[in-house]
Amino acid sequence: MPRQRYSNMNELAAFGFLANALDNRAGGDGDMGALFPRSDAEDMSKGARFIPGEVTLARRAGKKITFVTECGPNCWYWQMPDGSRRYHWDSLTYHQIGRANGRKEVKGKYSTSFEGGAGPCPHCGNPNTNGGTIKL
Ligand SMILES: [Zn+2]
Fold first, then answer.
1. What is the Å distance from ligand 1's center to 21 Cα?
2. Which helix (H) or strand (E) covers residue 57, if one does?
3. In terms of CB atoms within 10 Å, which of 18, 49, 125, 135 comes out highest?
4. Distance from C-alpha of 46 to C-alpha of 10, rounded to nearest angstrom
5. Closest CA to 119 of 92, 91, 99
6. CA of 27 to the centre of ligand 1 (A)
7. What's the sign of the alpha-carbon dihedral 12, 6, 62, 135?
8. 117: left (phi over 0), alpha (psi -120 to 50) or beta
9. How far is ligand 1, taken at its centre, from the CA of residue 101, in Å?
């Protein structure tokens, strides 16, 4: 199955750009004071389906946050102003990684997860595939 990182994300990104364009509180960079920061919409155009609240809040406050997408979902992250990395969690990719690593699936109330997590990213070995914030 071909990877479709960008296919169904465009509507979300388009909505974000529109919401940002209509927001007359947004500063010159499109982020400061914006209900929907332009950088959030740009991240969505790169495939993010979810922007962590702390990322949006920091952008509204005028801080620069980079969405680093060198590898792929569950491996890409936001570089926060304090140097920490906020990892993205995508359920589809999480399950692909868990199965690729041969992890035991655990049925939960709402979804399945893996005993001990999905394991490292098969592409680069990054162990932070369960999402979360990593302090370096
Ligand atoms: Zn990776």
1. 33
2. helix 53-60
3. 49
4. 9
5. 99
6. 34
7. positive
8. left
9. 13
pLDDT digits (tens, 9 = 90+) for 33-57: 999 999 999 999 998 888 999 999 9
Instruction: Look up residue 28 and give its amino acid.
Output: G
- The Å distance, Cα 102 to ligand 1 centre, comes to 17
pLDDT band, residue 9 (cuts 50/70/90): low
Question: How many residues can be counted in the chain?
Answer: 136
Helix (H) or strand (E) holding 114: strand 112-114
7 Cα to the center of ligand 1, angstroms: 20
At 56-100, the pLDDT tens digits run 999 999 999 999 999 988 899 999 999 999 998 888 899 999 999
- Residue 15, amino acid: F
- How would you classify the pairing of strands 105-107 and 85-87? unpaired
- Whole-model pTM: value is 0.81
Residue whose C-alpha is closest to residue 34's, from 50, 13, 20, 17: 20
Q: Identify the bridge partners of residue 132 per DSSP, sorted by sequence position.
A: 87
Main-chain phi, psi angles of 42, to 5 degrees: -65, -40
